[in-house]
Amino acid sequence: MAGRLYIETLDTARLLDDVLIDSPIVASPNLSPRHWLSMLRLEQGRVHLGRAFWGMTPSWLKVLDHAPHCARAESLDERRMFREAFAARRCLIPVSGVYIWKQLPRQKQPFLVTRIDRAPFMLAGLWCRYMTDLKTAFDSMALITVDVDAPLTPLTDRFPAVIDADQATRWLSSDTPLSQARALLTPAPPALLGAFPVERLVNDPANQHWHCARPTGHMMTATRGAIQATGH
């Protein structure tokens, strides 16, 4: 799953060319759902960087706590909010890493998943817009998760779909046939991502210290076997 994000201050030029900045990147060492984050979406043929609430909030949703922060790729057609957004409102979330938790005999050990080269990357998402009155609106979103491949298999069974920069416009465009958009929702290439154990203080979303992401062990990659969690 994806319950927490690690987002450094990013230069959008490292992700995509020709992005219109409506709002600067939201940086956070430990960003949890029900908070604002940065979102890339297509508007009139241009990619815009704006902000969205992490938790899909269509206008008919009555309880904010019920706003889903993730959607399974396999079941996008089963819920109206996901089905409509998948057809017309796909987005990308720029991140530096994603926290996941491995279940150990007595506790869970947090890991940070990053690109092996530590470059930023983009996660597939869906968004919707909610009008609070005739002049005011806000956007909200949910990440799309898929099954995992190595090196994440020992750690979790779900992870957000990663969209390559070369496929970003194709993913964002509502003109892209749904069959082609769905084909992009696959596990990240094994050589792209790695994971390393981090401090357990990240378990508390109130901890907003950058050393939440401090490694406490070696990085696990597709070419290195499982490692022993050495978090404090």
TrEMBL record:
<dbReference type="GO" id="GO:0003697">
    <property type="term" value="F:single-stranded DNA binding"/>
</dbReference>
<dbReference type="GO" id="GO:0016829">
    <property type="term" value="F:lyase activity"/>
</dbReference>
<protein>
    <recommendedName>
        <fullName>Abasic site processing protein</fullName>
        <ecNumber>3.4.-.-</ecNumber>
    </recommendedName>
</protein>
<keyword id="KW-0190">Covalent protein-DNA linkage</keyword>
<keyword id="KW-0378">Hydrolase</keyword>
<keyword id="KW-0238">DNA-binding</keyword>
<dbReference type="InterPro" id="IPR036590">
    <property type="entry name" value="SRAP-like"/>
</dbReference>
<comment type="similarity">
    <text>Belongs to the SOS response-associated peptidase family.</text>
</comment>
<dbReference type="GO" id="GO:0006508">
    <property type="term" value="P:proteolysis"/>
</dbReference>
<keyword id="KW-0456">Lyase</keyword>
<keyword id="KW-0645">Protease</keyword>
<dbReference type="InterPro" id="IPR003738">
    <property type="entry name" value="SRAP"/>
</dbReference>
<dbReference type="GO" id="GO:0106300">
    <property type="term" value="P:protein-DNA covalent cross-linking repair"/>
</dbReference>
<keyword id="KW-0227">DNA damage</keyword>
<dbReference type="Pfam" id="PF02586">
    <property type="entry name" value="SRAP"/>
</dbReference>
<dbReference type="GO" id="GO:0008233">
    <property type="term" value="F:peptidase activity"/>
</dbReference>
